[in-house]
Amino acid sequence: MKNLGEHAIVIGASMGGLLAARVLSDFYTRVTLLERDAFPAAHTPRKGVPQGRHTHGLLARGSAILEEFFAGYNAEVVAQSGGLIGDVANDVIWIGHNVRLANARSDLTGLLASRPVLEGHLRRRLLRLPNVRAIESCAVTGLATDPVRKSVTGVRTCVDGKLEQTLDAELVVDATGRGSSSAAWLEALGYPPPANEKVEIGICYMTRTYRRRPTDLDGKHGIVVAGSAPNWRNGVMLAQENDSWIVSAGGFLGDDAPDDDQGFLAYLATLPTMEIHDVVARAEPLTGYTQYRYASSLRRRYEKLARFPGNYLVFGDAICSFNPVYGQGMTVAAEEALALQQCLRAGSNDLARRFFRSAAKIVDIPWDIAVGNDLRHPHVKGARPPMLRFINWYIGKLHVAATRDSTLATAFLKVVNLMMPPSSLLRPAIARRVWWGNRRCGVSAGSRAIETARGNGASL
């Protein structure tokens, strides 16, 4: 790898920041990771990751990329912390459009562990690199700039509340997540902020951890229930370390799950399958209830800016954050890390323009998946052009056929896991299977499909 400078700084040590720092370590003599929190000694949630107490798992694409950057990472999480590696299409039950997809063996390998475990292992692996260091309890108060060259020269920091100091760098990367201050910092420097796209979804889910028994779910590693009419409620139960289940359930636009045992079980009973309810009803609780509220999916269009300072980038959730029920965030950050690596291999000239364009192409797919599916809800506000309405209708038909056709189920899960583009589901061979499967099944996406999913019978 070519050396592009003496020092690079990454603001934010969440998953995106850790991955960005890993890429920069190959191109800069020193990399400094600045984190507002103090790192926990054990695998416990930290303040800067409000979703850290909730359901997490690495999609197949994210798992593969992390393995590429940190060889042996997946096996390490399993061996040292009790995570689980599994076949996403065979070891997890998927229910969408109120029907259950057929399970089958596939090459989709995912990683299940809590967010503190996933992040903790990644952070320790990164900080073993000789040219990477982290500064904890470090607040970044602004950017240092060269007004003549119109470039960023470093950051202004305050560590442990002490006097402000400036750290110089040839490149600064903002990986501070959805609450990024980049737009405000750009305005203060005389640059226009990026245009925003926002879709209000009002998602709120309640999470609790339970003891996991080997016989639960007939040995499957988890179940994912995507919200659909009539009540649009989501439910997820995934195996985690220490023989535990993490269970999250919630709805759109104020339809919150209760935080008491009776109310939570009643809420789970309204899902199109009783499987999560039945496990929770007899499982030993390991934690209390924790709520997470997420108002809107947000995309900042940095790629459309005509002017942007040199030596500065925005990364990960600071560019785009999605409805978290789709579990895309960590994988999108991993894909952006690959894009950053490719951009840096071509040098540092015009880096921001090249990276933002690459990142926009990456974000397009998960954004369309998340927002397109959320717009199925009649009360979520947003444009519904004819093509989106057709795609949502077609995906519903695909689900019906995929209750019996594992080839269709796996094709759909490859898209969900960001291994294949959504357009792959429109290939003639797939479309024929969808058509034939609907002729065979004769099952609508209405109440009969709900009852089929509830019954969990042999026909699925």
Q: In a nutshell, what does this entry contain?
A:
It is built from 13 helices and 18 strands. It has helices spanning 15-24, 60-69, 73-81, 115-127, 182-188, 261-268, 275-282, 329-345, 351-374, 386-402, 406-416, 428-441, 447-455, and strands spanning 5-11, 28-34, 84-87, 92-96, 99-100, 109-112, 132-135, 138-146, 151-159, 165-168, 171-174, 195-211, 222-225, 234-240, 244-251, 290-301, 312-314, 320-321. The longest helix has 24 residues, at 351-374.
Shape: globular
CATH topology of the largest domain: FAD/NAD(P)-binding domain
Trace the largest sheet across and list its strands.
Answer: 5-4-13-14-15-12-16-18
- How many helices? The count is 13
Number of E-state strands:
18
Range of helix content: 25-40%
Overall domain count:
3
Low-confidence stretches: 443-460
Cα radius of gyration in angstroms: 22 Å
Assembly state of the chains shown:
single chain
Can you tell me the CATH architecture of the largest domain?
A: 3-Layer(bba) Sandwich
Question: Could you explain the architecture of this structure?
Answer:
The chain has 460 residues and is α/β, with parallel strands linked by helices. It folds into three domains: 5-82 and 115-196 and 296-369, FAD/NAD(P)-binding domain, CATH 3.50.50.60; 84-106 and 199-294, D-Amino Acid Oxidase, subunit A, domain 2 (D-Amino Acid Oxidase, Chain A, domain 2, 2-Layer Sandwich), CATH 3.30.9; 386-455, no CATH class. It is 34% helix and 24% strand. It has 13 helices and 18 strands. The strands form four sheets. An eight-stranded mixed sheet has the order 5-4-13-14-15-12-16-18, sandwiched between helices. A hairpin with a 4-residue loop joins strand 8 and strand 9 (151-159). Helix 8 packs antiparallel against helix 9 (351-374). It is globular, with a radius of gyration of 22 Å. Residues 8-345 form the FAD-binding domain. Pfam families: FAD_binding_3 (PF01494). This is 2-polyprenyl-6-methoxyphenol hydroxylase-like FAD-dependent oxidoreductase.
